[in-house]
Amino acid sequence: MNNIPEVKLGIAAVSRDCFPIQLSQKRRDAVLEACRKMKLAVQAVEPVIENETDAMKALEDARKKGINALVVYLGNFGPEGPETILAQRFGGPVMVAGAAEESGNDLINGRGDAYCGMLNASYNIGLRKLRPYIPEYPVGVPAEIAEMMQGFVPVARILLGLKGLKIFSFGPRPQDFLACNAPIKALYDLGVEIMENSELDLYDVFLSAKGRPEIASIAADMAKELGAGNKHPTLLEKLAQYEAGLTDFMDKNLGASTYGIFANKCWPSFEKYFGFVPCYVNSRLASRGIPVSCEVDIYGTLSEYMAACATQLPVTLLDINNTVPADMIAAEKSKTGDRKPNDLFMGFHCGNTPSGCLVQHEMKFQLIMHRLMEAGKEPDITRGTLEGRFKPGPVTVFRLQSTADTVLRAYMAQGEVLDIEPKSFGGIGVIAIPEMGRFYRHVLIEKRFPHHTALAFAHAGRALFDACRMLGVEDISVNRPKSLPYPTENPF
Questions:
Q1: What is the average per-residue pLDDT within 390-409?
Q2: Measured by CB atoms within 10 angstroms of the end CB, which terminus of the chain is less buried, N or C?
Q3: How many angstroms separate the Cα of 367 from the Cα of each of 93, 243, 350, 492?
Q4: Tens of pLDDT along 449-470?
Q5: Is 484 among the domain residues?
Q6: At a CB cut-off of 8 Å and minimum separation 6, what does 190 contact?
Q7: What integer pLDDT is reported at residue 179 of this predicted model?
Q8: How many structural domains does the chain have?
Q9: Which of 115, 139, 162 is the last residue of a domain?
Q10: 141 and 221 belong to one structural domain
Q11: Residue 175 clears pLDDT 80, i.e. is over it
Q12: What mean pLDDT, rounded, does the chain reach?
């Protein structure tokens, strides 16, 4: 996953000058020791901050040490101005938390009052219009602070990734896919760059890669990955040429950005000119932390990338596709358990899911496109999907989306892939999400989210929720329990 940032975490202790500075130093060192026991790498920012001059010294120390995510730690009450100036000028993700009192035997000289200091800090955070990460209960003893810092790491990774991200798009959306409408103004609000290109540019990328020396090794790697699932070996050279072209294009066009992802046109004209479907190549890039969304879904690939940063695992883009038939549910009762039928759905896409996320994988042809483009013929230009059943286990569906009026909305819901044979084609699986039926109606439909969702193969809701909060997304939806109705839900 070489397209995902590495979080280099630091901790800076602050101390109000009417409290002993040694209290903050001692408590910071205890947090560092707790992090060491958890095997969480953290560097200390040496100056303890009592005033603005100290804040500037701490900032310089953090920069020299390469720290890109910072914990501002109130070892005592803390100076609200200097500590928030540090957060403001740091330039990267910041967490703010405070020390709990350790013992009833030391509540005179050893009392720090960070519980109170967090309140003053929060007011100053608002004055400076900052959005730091503040844990759910942001005061604790060293072991608890270390756990909070561990929870901050995936959030920081998401924010660092977006800060250095460029999206490469190729082509307009296919007809009748306005649901993937992507006004790009909101990308700039997030700090994400975009480079829009035409389908002709994508074809030129492919043609220009012909004869590149790495094509043979890419094709050999494809054959190794596919193994017995290599049903169309004569296609590998073309697919390798396409992969070589895309990765070379990204390397040459990152410019001021550090990380790149794609949103590419993949039908209907693609197959006629390229001679294959690009799904398998998309799956391979996704396995390296470079999502390639289908159908020029710009916010789909953005959502995939955020999920990959949260989990450090390959992700995929799915259609929230079809219901699970009653006879299948009845036959698999031991696996569906007490879930309601509308807690279940099938997630599907043509064949873009990384091989490591599938129980078994084979290169096949895209059945829907074959019906349209090669009806009655042996598959040719519709070959190139990677198909199989999703591995059972925890998953998170997630999407960050800009509406037509450039308002950002997001949703996330955790569930699991069930160990059930979908009896269908493509990359597909039976997914169970608690109260999915209500979530489908009162979030996905009510708020006009498109049919695509990013799928993380882990539970990542907490990190994604906190990252969206820090990005300033005000409308964030989750799947609510039955006891908590949605605002639009009929109470009768």
A1: 94
A2: C
A3: 45, 23, 8, 44
A4: 999 999 999 999 999 999 999 9
A5: no
A6: 162, 408, 471
A7: 66
A8: 2
A9: 162
A10: no
A11: no
A12: 96
pLDDT at 404: 83
Buried b or exposed e, range 77-114, using 16+ CB within 10 angstroms: bbbbbbbbbbbbebebbbbbbbbbebeeeeeeeeebbb
Three-state SS at 251:
helix
Average pLDDT over residues 242-267: 96
CATH code of the domain in which 49 resides: 3.40.50.10940
Sheet holding 292-293, edge to edge: 193-197, 165-170, 259-264, 292-293
Q: Are 232 and 263 in contact (CB under 8 A)?
A: no
* 486 found inside a domain: no
Q: How far is CA 242 from CA 96, 204, 238, 246, 451, in A?
A: 46, 10, 6, 6, 27
Burial of 277 (0-12, 13-18, 19+ CB in 10 A): buried
| 70 and 212 co-located in one domain | no
Answer yes or no: do 110 and 228 share one domain. no
Type of residue at 115 = Y
Q: Do residue 121 and residue 210 come from a single domain?
A: no
Q: Rounded to the nearest 5 degrees, what angle is found at the Cα of 317, between the Cα atoms of 314 and 322?
A: 130
How many C-alpha atoms does 177 have within 13 Å on its Cβ side?
20
**Same domain as 206, residue 136:** no
Question: Which residue reads 């730091």 in tokens?
Answer: 132
At residue 406, φ and ψ (nearest 5 deg) are: 60, 30
- Give the three-class secondary structure for 238: helix
Range in 100-104, 253-257, 404-408 with the lowest mean pLDDT:
404-408
Residue 353's nearest CA partner among 402, 395, 298, 400 is 395
Q: Are residues 300 and 151 in the same domain?
A: no
Q: Give burial (CB, 10 Å; 0-12/13-18/19+) of 491.
A: exposed
- Averaged over 197-205, what is the pLDDT? 96
Count, residues in the chain: 492
CB 71 within 8 A of CB 95: yes
The three-state secondary structure class of 454 is strand
Same domain, 208 and 223: yes
Domain that holds residue 416: 164-478
Amino acid at 254: L
**Distance between CA atoms of residues 299 and 183, nearest Å:** 9
> For residue 287, how far is the Cα from the chain centroid?
13
Q: Which residue has the tokens 């790697």?
A: 221
Of 124, 139, 162, the domain-final residue: 162
Q: Residue 80: which pLDDT band, with cuts at 50, 70 and 90?
A: very high
CB 142 within 8 A of CB 102: no
Instruction: Give the contacts of 162 (CB within 8 A, at least 6 positions apart).
Output: 190, 191, 192, 305, 306, 471
Name the amino acid, one letter, at 133. Answer: Y
Radius of gyration of the chain measured on its C-alpha atoms: 25
